[in-house]
Task: structure prediction
Amino acid sequence: MLELIDDLTNYLKRPYLVRIPEKVDKPFNLLLKLALICIVAGIGCGILLSLLIGLKLIPDPGPSVIDHKKMSKIVLFAMAVIWAPLSEELLFRAQLRRFTGSLAFIALICGAFLSALTQTDWAYLVSPFIFIILYFIYRYNLARSITLKFEFWERIFPWHFHLTAICFSLVHLSNYEKGISLLPLGILYTLPQLAVGLILGYTRMNYGLKYSIALHAMYNFFPVLLFISKY
Result:
C-alpha cells in the first residue's frame, strides 16, 4: 500500500507517458487499494471544504441539485455507478494517450465552458472550429516528424494531465444549483473531485482505461449507497 501511495505521489508531481503493462498483478487488490486512497482523499478534501465554508473563508455554495431531483433509487444508482464512470472516463481520461484526442478534448471543453458562461447552447459550435485550428497547427508543425511530435507531447503532457483533472472537477459544479456562477472559486468547491480525478488519471496512464472506469465505479458506489439508504 505504501509503495502504491509513493508511486502515485511521485507520478502526480510530474506526470509522464508510461507504457501500460500487458498484465496487472492482482488487479482486484490493486483496485481496492486505489479505491481506499480515493475515499480517503475525497473525505479529506470534503473536510477541508467544510472548514473553509465554516470559517467563512469562502461563501456557502448553496444546495445541491441532487437534493431536489425526483429520481428513483435504481436510476440514481445506475447513473452514478454505470453511466457516470463510463461517460466521464471516456471523455476525460481516454484521450490522455491520444494526441489528436487531446486536441478534440480541449476544443470541446472550450465550447462547454463558453456555453456555461453565456448560458446558451450555440456556444458549443465554436468547438469544431477550435479543433480545426489546433489540428492544422499540429499537422503542419509537428506531424512531419515523429520525434518532434513526441518531444512536444512529452513536454506539455504534465500540463495537459493536470488540466484534464481540473476540468473534470469543474464539471461537477453542475452538482450545485448555482453551478458555473460559483466561479472563480469553483475549484475549491470541487476539491474532492479534483483529488479523485488526479488518481483516476494516474490509474488510466499506469494500468489502462478499463481500470480507471472500474475504479470510478467503485468510488461512486459507496457514497451513492449511503445516499440511497438515507432516503
Remarks:
- DSSP finds nine helices and no strands in the chain.
